Amino acid sequence: EKKRLLLGGICCGVALATGSTLQQFGIMYTTVGKAGFITAFYIIIVPILGLFLGKKCGLSVWISVVIALAGLYFLCITDGFSIGKGDIYVFLGAIAFSIHILVIDYFTQFNDGVKMSCIQFFVCGILCFVPMMLFEHPEISVILYAGVMSCGVAYTLQIVGQKNMNPTVASLILSLESVTSVIAGFLVLHQNLSHRELIGCGLMFIAIVLAQ
Length: 212
Prior knowledge:
79% of the residues lie in helices and 0% in strands. The protein has helices at 2-27, 32-39, 42-52, 59-76, 85-107, 113-135, 140-162, 167-174, 177-187, 195-211.
């Protein structure tokens, strides 16, 4: 039991560190909108990988995936779409995040989610700390915010929430980060919502409701 808990935490930590690192490298060479759209490709990668693991989805979930992709396109892509070096990094990161979701789905059947989450952060922290100290000049406020809020709170809730949930539905719900970021920009930063973004938000919400 302890070996399985340790293995689950290590696998989650490696997948999370890999996905986050590839995503952040990719954002250096592409736009935030494209990065958000490509990252959310895990909503199609997860069910495809899940098929090989015996995780089948109903027709309504597959329809939801298509609607969500359309919504993300309206939400994130404003100019012409082309593929560059940064986009490839972000797509590889999306594959890593997909593996992360499927690893959580498998190991939460046997392990306590909070304990596994603690191991995940320890592993992810070590993997990211060494190159951070070698190549960057980090600020403690940024480390605390990203570490405590993004990783500590969000990814712990993901592990706990994913227990007994279809991983494809989980990936659809997680893709709502694109919607909430647009809404937060409107409410907090007073950024205007375009008609395109409103259509994207609407399609995303329809997809989530249909999947549920």
